[in-house]
Specification:
By secondary structure, the protein is of the alpha/beta class. It has a single domain, classed as Alpha/Beta hydrolase fold, catalytic domain (Rossmann fold, 3-Layer(aba) Sandwich). 40% of the residues lie in helices and 17% in strands.
Length: 333
C-alpha cells in the first residue's frame, strides 16, 4: 500500500512539473515569435468527455474545455480575408511547444493565421485533463472545434481557405478531420502520420500499448475489440477522402514505421482516391526528418508549402529555401 501511494504521489508530482514546464514554454512563445505575430491562448470547448463514469451526475455531459494557441501576423489588414492553418501537435500525451517555432514563423511569413489546439489528453494541464485522452476519437472534434472557433470569431479568417497540417499523431488527426469534415478544409498535409492502430499496437512495446488499453482510455486491446481500433485508424477510413491531400513518410522512421503509412497509401489507392505522397529514403532525422532545421528539411518544407499554396492562396507564398531562411530570422513586412 505504501508503494502504491508513493507511485500515485510521484505521478501527481510529474503532472505538476509538466504544468510548470508548459508555463515556461508559453513565455518563450512571446520571446521567439512576438516580433512577427500577435499571440494568444484562448479557452474553448469540444464534445463532452469520452468516458463518463456517472452520466447522471450534475454537469457530467458538459462540453470539455481546452486551451488553443492563436498566431496572427502583425502586418495583416483586418479588412481583408486570410487563410487559416490548423496545426495539431503530435505525441500520445504531448503538447504544442516552441519546438514548432520555425514552422509557425514560416507560416506567419506567408500570411497564414495559425491555430494550434491543446486537445484532450495534452500534457501540461494536470492529471485530470491528461486522462481525458481519446486517441483517434473525440480529440479530432476538439481540433475541428478550434477550426470553427477561428472562422466564427475572427472576421479576417477566410472559412473557404482552411488547411490542416500535422505530423505523427497530428498527421493522424489531420486525416480524421478531412475524412469526417471534408467540406470544411481546402487541403491537408499529413507527415509521418499514425495510420493503422492495429498494426501499430502490434509492433509497439508493452509500455506504449498500455497508453491505449488503460482503463481511462480505450480500455481494451485490439484482440478484445478490433473494430474499435479499426474505427480510430485512418487506413481503415480511406474511402472517405474527398480533400486534396499530401502525405510524407520516411523509410528510417523509428517511431511511425513506414509500413504503417504504406498501409494508408495502399488503402487510398485501393479506393481509387486521388492524392499526393512521397516516401523518402533514409532521410537524416528519422521521424522528424522534415521538421528539423537542416537545408534538406527546409527544401522538403518548401514542397509542402507549395502544395498548400495551390489551395489556400496565401499573400506571400514561400517558394524557396531562401524564403524560409528569411522567415526564420527577419521581421515580416
Amino acid at each position: 500500500m505504501k508503494v502504491d501511494k508513493l507511485l500515485r504521489e510521484n505521478e501527481e508530482l510529474n503532472h505538476r512539473i509538466d504544468i510548470l514546464e508548459k508555463q515556461i514554454d508559453d513565455v518563450l512563445w512571446f520571446n521567439r515569435l512576438g516580433d512577427v505575430a500577435f499571440i494568444d491562448k484562448v479557452f474553448i470547448y469540444g464534445p463532452p468527455p469520452a468516458h463518463i463514469r456517472n452520466p447522471e451526475q450534475t454537469g457530467a455531459k458538459n462540453p470539455l474545455k481546452f486551451w488553443t494557441y492563436v498566431f496572427i501576423p502583425r502586418n495583416i489588414d483586418p479588412s481583408k480575408k486570410y487563410p487559416l492553418i490548423v496545426l495539431p501537435h503530435g505525441g500520445v500525451h504531448a503538447d504544442f511547444t516552441t519546438y514548432h517555432t520555425h514552422i509557425v514563423r514560416e507560416m506567419i511569413a506567408q500570411g497564414y493565421i495559425v491555430v494550434a489546439p491543446e486537445y484532450r489528453g495534452s500534457t501540461g494541464y494536470g492529471q485530470s485533463f491528461w486522462r481525458q485522452i481519446d486517441y483517434g476519437g473525440l480529440e479530432n472534434e476538439d481540433v475541428f472545434a478550434s477550426r470553427n472557433y477561428m472562422v466564427e470569431n475572427y472576421d479576417f479568417v477566410d472559412g473557404n481557405r482552411v488547411g490542416i497540417v500535422g505530423w505523427s499523431h497530428g498527421g493522424m488527426i489531420a486525416l480524421h478531420n478531412i475524412f469526417d469534415h471534408p467540406d470544411s478544409y481546402a487541403c491537408a498535409f499529413a507527415g509521418v502520420p499514425v495510420s493503422d492502430m492495429i498494426l501499430r499496437y502490434g509492433y509497439a512495446e508493452d509500455e506504449y500499448r498500455r497508453l491505449y488499453d488503460a482503463d481511462y482510455h480505450i480500455g481494451k486491446t485490439p484482440r478484445e475489440d478490433i473494430n474499435e481500433y479499426r474505427r480510430r485508424s485512418p487506413a481503415w477510413q480511406a474511402h472517405k477522402l474527398k480533400t486534396p491531400l499530401l502525405i510524407h513518410t520516411n523509410t528510417n522512421d523509428d517511431d511511425v514505421y513506414v509500413i504503417e503509412v504504406e498501409s494508408l497509401i495502399k488503402s487510398l489507392k485501393a479506393e481509387g482516391k486521388k492524392f499526393e505522397y512521397e516516401i523518402f529514403q533514409d532521410m537524416p532525422g528519422g521521424h522528424s526528418f522534415d521538421r528539423i532545421d537542416t537545408k534538406a528539411a527546409r527544401q522538403i518544407r518548401v514542397k509542402i508549402y507549395k502544395f498548400l499554396a495551390q489551395y489556400l492562396n496565401p499573400p506571400k507564398p514561400i517558394k524557396s529555401v531562401e524564403d524560409i531562411n528569411r522567415a526564420a530570422y527577419l521581421p515580416i513586412k
